[in-house]
């Protein structure tokens, strides 16, 4: 018979979803899974670059040998944010590209293809789609991860993505509630504030989340963002946001998950342990912990802090039991889907010509000016700081162009080591000589390093061709191929256009 303290510890473990290091689960993790740990969240560090699908399948099999209903989640948004394809770049374009195409059937097919692949690898919980409305062009962390700036467009593609993931027998997560798209700070690095009244939030931020709830989304992830109109605390720690707004007003009855408690907005303010307690008290059910430094001591320490909060009366045991119960119910439901035919159906080991990811990448392409190459080019990839959610994932059009145009030269120019835009531009113009010059960049808004290089090169070479892998800057007038995604398939689609192999397609269905 389990002692009261043993039961309390099991409940506390039952709300934790930590990350870990390595491509196989360490012994301490398997021990805690056996003890009742809710599950894990996988990151690029857990994925074998040489054989990602089979490697993850072997990892998840080890976890399920310990406990069949363990939850395994992964951040697989497509485009810039991929874990399975961190070594080569994503097989599907990201949300901004899908929003530009605006074909709901295609978005659903892309989500289903991703879900089938994940289910075959033993992953049943997808930490996507992003339901944030990209309302501020200067947002440093959402941007291209959003389907777009129009709440209705975002809402319909969020619903289509949820449906596609469900078609594959995997659970979907709408994030970051109640909205991170209108902030100008990154909650990984600070505690952002979104100063909008409740009426604006209802008309803008909440629209996609309502659509997600209506589509039957399984999980909603909270934002580590403060909304002064609602509560002085960040949303993850706010009863007003989680319980009154999400549960009460939107009617969500599934699992509420926190964003990573190791992010600064929690770990750098109240701390992870206190953040865990306050999040549970606010109505959060599952606590995500993504830090690479996590080990047995961290997981046991968090479980102990949660149990202590119950014993000292700060966290009602009934609330903890309710949270753990929701997580257990989701895990049991997903475990029961393991025999679903869609998950076991064969899927391509690499994207083929009729793959929905390739189709979406081709249809998202936007061309301005004369971009078809007249000879082997110099392709310069302008590398600046990437985002924390995306991590260090390969991007750029150089390799894809070189594969199609013999004689192509590729240079990667890093802002960290080549900070003088004028000097970089002069060197590239000189190296290109009279041949075609292509620049490849992710960030082209005025004021950033790549934009300064682009402007300087364009002044000397008006025939410059830009491949823009991010959100195109409206004030930049150069010959351009905009991909709306930094995925591998988007780079290949852009290379086809440059090489004259493929005419760009209109984005409408």
Low-confidence stretches: 341-349, 504-509
Name given to the CATH homologous superfamily of the domain at 356-498: Glycoside hydrolase family 3 C-terminal domain
Strand order of the largest sheet: 2-3-4-5-6-9
Helical residues, percent: 40-55%
Count of separate DSSP helical elements: 19
Specify Rg, calculated over alpha carbons: 23 Å
Tertiary shape: globular
Biggest pleated-sheet summary: 6 strands, parallel
Identify the CATH architecture of the domain at 356-498: 3-Layer(aba) Sandwich
How much of the sequence is in beta strands? 5-15%
Present the secondary structure layout:
Layout: H1 4-13, E1 16-18, H2 27-35, E2 39-42, H3 52-66, E3 71-74, H4 95-101, H5 104-120, E4 125-126, H6 151-167, E5 171-177, H7 198-203, H8 206-214, E6 219-222, E7 226-227, E8 231-234, H9 239-249, E9 255-257, H10 264-267, H11 272-282, E10 287-289, H12 296-311, H13 317-336, H14 341-344, H15 356-364, E11 366-368, E12 378-383, H16 398-404, E13 409-414, H17 421-432, E14 437-441, H18 449-460, E15 465-468, E16 479-482, H19 488-498
Parallel strand pairs: 1-10, 2-3, 3-4, 4-5, 5-6, 6-9, 12-13, 12-14, 14-15, 15-16
Antiparallel strand pairs: 7-8, 11-16
Helix pairs in contact: 1-12, 4-15, 5-6, 5-15, 6-8, 11-12, 15-19, 16-19, 17-18
């Amino acid at each position: 018979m389990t002692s009261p303290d043993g039961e309390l510890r099991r409940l506390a473990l039952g709300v934790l979803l930590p990350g870990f290091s390595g491509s196989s689960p360490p012994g301490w993790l398997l021990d805690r899974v056996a003890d009742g740990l809710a599950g894990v969240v996988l990151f690029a560090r857990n994925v074998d670059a040489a054989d990602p699908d089979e490697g993850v399948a072997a990892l998840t099999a080890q976890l399920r040998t310990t406990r069949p209903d363990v939850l395994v989640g992964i951040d697989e948004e497509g485009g810039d944010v991929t874990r399975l394809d961190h070594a080569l770049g994503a097989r599907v374009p990201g949300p901004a590209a899908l929003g530009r195409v605006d074909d709901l059937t295609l978005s659903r097919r892309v989500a289903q293809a991703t879900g089938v692949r994940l289910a075959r690898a033993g992953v049943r919980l997808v930490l996507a789609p992003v339901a944030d409305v990209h309302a501020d062009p200067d947002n440093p962390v959402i941007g291209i991860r959003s389907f777009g700036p129009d709440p209705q467009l975002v809402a319909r593609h969020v619903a289509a993505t949820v449906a596609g993931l469900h078609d594959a027998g995997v659970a979907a997560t709408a994030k970051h509630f109640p909205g991170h798209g209108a902030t100008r700070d990154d909650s990984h690095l600070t505690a952002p504030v979104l100063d909008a009244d409740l009426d604006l939030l209802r008309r803008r931020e909440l629209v996609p989340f309502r659509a997600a709830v209506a589509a039957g989304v399984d999980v909603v992830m909270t934002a580590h963002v403060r909304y002064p109109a609602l509560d002085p605390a960040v949303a993850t720690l706010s009863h007003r946001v989680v319980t009154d707004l999400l549960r009460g007003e939107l009617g969500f009855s599934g699992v509420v998950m926190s964003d990573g408690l190791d992010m600064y907005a929690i770990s750098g303010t109240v701390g992870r342990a206190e953040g865990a307690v306050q999040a549970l008290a606010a109505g959060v059910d599952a606590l995500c912990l993504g830090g690479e430094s996590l080990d047995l001591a961290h997981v046991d320490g968090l479980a102990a802090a949660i149990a202590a909060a119950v014993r000292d009366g700060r966290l009602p045991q009934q609330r903890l039991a309710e949270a753990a119960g929701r997580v257990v119910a989701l895990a049991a439901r997903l475990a029961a889907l393991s025999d679903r035919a869609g998950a076991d159906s064969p899927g391509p080991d690499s994207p083929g010509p009729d793959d929905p990811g390739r189709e979406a990448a081709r249809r998202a392409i936007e061309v301005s000016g004369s971009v078809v190459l007249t000879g082997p080019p110099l392709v310069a990839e302008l590398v600046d700081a990437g985002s924390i959610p995306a991590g260090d994932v390969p991007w750029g059009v150089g390799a894809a162009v070189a594969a199609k145009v013999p004689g192509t030269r590729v240079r990667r120019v890093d802002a960290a080591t080549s900070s003088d835009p004028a000097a970089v531009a002069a060197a590239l113009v000189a190296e290109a000589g009279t041949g075609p010059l292509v620049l490849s960049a992710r960030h082209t808004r005025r004021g950033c390093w790549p934009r300064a290089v682009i402007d300087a090169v364009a002044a000397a070479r008006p025939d410059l061709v830009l491949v823009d892998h991010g959100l195109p800057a409206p004030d930049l007038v150069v010959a351009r191929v905009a991909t709306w995604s930094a995925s591998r398939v988007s780079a290949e689609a852009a290379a086809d256009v440059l090489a004259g192999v493929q005419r760009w397609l209109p984005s409408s269905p």
